[in-house]
Structures are given as structure tokens and as C-alpha cells.
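Purpose: get a first structural picture of the assembly so the mutagenesis plan has something to point at.
Setup: two entries, given in the order below. No constraints added.
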Amino acid sequence: MSQISTKHLLGIKNITENDVQLILETASNFKEVINRPIKKVPSLRDITIANVFFENSTRTRLSFELAEKRLSADVVNFSSSNSSVKKGETLVDTVNNILSMKVDMVVMRHSSPGAPHFLSRNVKANIVNAGDGTHEHPTQALLDAFSIKEKLGDVAGKKVAIIGDILHSRVALSNIFCLQKLGAEVMVCGPITLLPKYVESLGVKVELDVRKALQWCDVANVLRIQLERQQIKYFPSLREYSLYYGINRKMLEELDKEIVIMHPGPINRGVELNSDVADSKQSIILEQVQNGVAVRMAVLYLLAGVK
Amino acid sequence: MQKRLVLDEEQIAIILRRFCHQLIENHDDFENTVLLGLQPRGTLLVDKIVSLLQEISGVKVPSGYLDATFHRDDFRRRDLPLKANETKIDFLVEGKKVILVDDVLYKGRSVRAAMDAMIAFGRPQKVELMVLVDRKLTRDYPIMPDYFGVRINTLESQYVVVEWKEQGFEKDAIWITEKDKS
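Result (C-alpha cells, whole complex):
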């Protein structure tokens, strides 16, 4: 199969394993492209893409924009902070206005879970979810899977522990779906207050002790403590969190094997990851960022190819 | 299905040998020459040429695989998109003489896309095209091979199929078949 089964990438949950494999294979072709002297291919030169960001982002937005430009697409950027959204325009109106200027694809980040799904039912363009609230962040999960595959050869059979704020994390949910589709074993680990109540129903292991989680896993995907989403206190203090759940060099040295450390960024240094881990040889955090561009190129390319 | 033999194993072997001698004649000691096999079906051929050249002249000519999927002009126009293949080129073509190698030259669109893709690796001094089968009368672009094994008249309703032993076929062979009408 050389065609993706969907017109929109809204989440990992509703795409097939074949889709995921196709995206990863295509991404490895694009990774070769972005390491050439001339990093650009003309595939999407007749496509216009709008990056519509209702929530702050540095990495994802830059990564999407680079991916779009390296595919030769025309790009327009929109952020809600300096737009008519502030004047009370609705989501569908905003996007339809952008589309009436002949835009073919919309990459959207929104703080409300389900916003891209809603949009995909109401507008004609291909929609790519770049993060919807605490729900899904599919391209992050795909680039994480790609990075694991690149580092360890395969995702199937690998043990991946997702550590930190699982409750507020769209990265965690998309990662769980994606890794399970590819045949990995997944564990979530964090303080009980930051684990969703029914997380076991997703078929993941649950562990409260970070040392046990590190001992179990081949890959530790460490998540950021999302202070902006915590209106109530889920743990007494950052200091206490880092004392119990922060990962440092010593903890890794105590393990009887070498594990891979991942983080979707931005890192709260000294909270969930110490600098001596984040900057160590075991960390593939910067590879993840580079792979992000290749994976997003693959997603845009494949969605644009759907008739 | 009707199937007509174009070249058999012996004829293909003679052509590959002829290709090598033609290349030696034109490129001397291959000091500044590289070979690029076009994905997906030119790669096996380029490997064969490289090893045969080494056998005949003792020179190992640098070679690579070039995939032009992202440079094709029929993206979003075909019913099913083409799947990309690996590009494997560990040198720059800047200032080099490049020989593009493919099995069948049909409309010339793949070669056009390949030249576009190749430019990402530098500005070559000269580009030549080598194909086993040149399907004349079906070209959409003004592209002609510098080296060809056999030149045949075919219709658009026909396929030219190249079979190699390395792909599990009993013998190397090239056939013309009719496209399935259903």
C-alpha cells in the first residue's frame, strides 16, 4: 500500500498500523532529503498550507513550517494572539476565511480537545492536528516512534516507559496508541495524582516508582511537567517532584543496562530531567527534533497525495 | 496473456558487456565518472554494470541509487501515489560526468524527474543516459538515451517487463506483454 487511509491526521487512534508504517518509511526517505546539500524537493509546489496556532508553540510550529518549505509548499502563518479571534470570531469562521483564500491544508493547534475533529467535519481542507489540548499530538508520537526505530532498529518488542505528567499530556496518549500499534510494550510512570484514573484500560502497565520503571524499560520517554495546565496542585512542590521523579545521571548508572532517554521538549532542566542526563550520550532529544521535520514532511506529503 | 520475448539471457549478457566497452571507450579511466541507477528498477542494472566494469577494466566506478519520487510531475494526478525508495548517494555530482542507468525508457518523465533530483547533489559536468530497452514512439519529453540495448516499437497498451534471476526468475529475460484490459 502506498496510500494513507485518511484525509486528515487527527490522531493516532483512528489511523491504521499500515498508515503508521507508511509514514515512518516515507519519513526515512525524507530524512535522507533533509541531509542533502539541497534540502528541498518540489512535491507540494502547488499546495498552500496554513499553520493555525491557537496555542503557543516553538518547536512544533517551526518544525511544521520547515517541513512545508522543504516540500516547496506555500505557507501562511496564523496565531490567535494577534488575530480577529480576539474580536469574537468562531473557529469555523476563522478557518473558512483562511480557506477562501485557496488554502489546501490546515495544520492546527488548539487548546480544546477535539477541535481539529470538529474542523475536519466542517471544512474542505486536509486537517493536521498539531496538538489539541490534553488529547492527541500525533506527529510527536510518530517522530518518537521513528526515533526509537532509528536508534534501536525496531519498535516491536521494545519496552517504553512514559514518565511524568501523563494526565495532562497529549504526547503520552498519542505515544501509547502509536507504540502499541507498532507492537511495543508501554508503561506509564508518575505520581498517582498525575496518572489518569482509567489509564490501565488502554493496556499499559502502571508504575509509581521511577527507579523500577527505568529498570524495566529500554526507552524512557520523559514528559514535561505542564505547569500551565495545573490549576490545582497535583504535587506539593517542584522540588519534591524532582526529588522523587527527576531523572539524574546516578539513577542511570545504577541500572544494569543502557537505556535511551527521550523528551518531547521543552525541558524543565532540574525538574523532570537533570542536565547531566539531558545532555548525555544516551539522550536522543536533539535527534527527535531533527526527525520531527522528516516525519512531518512524510505526513504532509502523504495527505496531499490523497485524492 | 500474450507474451513476446524481446531479449533472452544470452542477448542481455552481450548487451551488458557492450555497455561496458562503450563506457570504457568514452570515459577512459573513469577518473571523473559516476553511475547512478534510477530507483526502483535501475539499481540492479547499475550494480551489474559496476561489477562487470571492474571485471573488465579493474576499476571500481563510484555508483549510487537515485529516487525521483518526490520530483515526479504526476504527484496528486495519479490514482495511487508512488511509494518512495531509498536514495543512496555518498558523493556529490558537482563537476562529475554522470551516467543515469535505468532498465526501460518509456515516456521520459522518470528521467526528467531524476535529472531534477540529481541536481540536489551538485551541478554535473555532463549527464548521459543508459537504458536496456528504448521504447521509441512513446516519448512525452525530448529525452534520448546515449547508450541503449535494444530499440523497440511498442504501443501504450503494452508493458515491457524485465526479469532478473536475482529477483527469483528462472532466467534473465525481457518481455512485451499486453496491459490487462479489465
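The first helix of chain B runs from residue 9 to 27.
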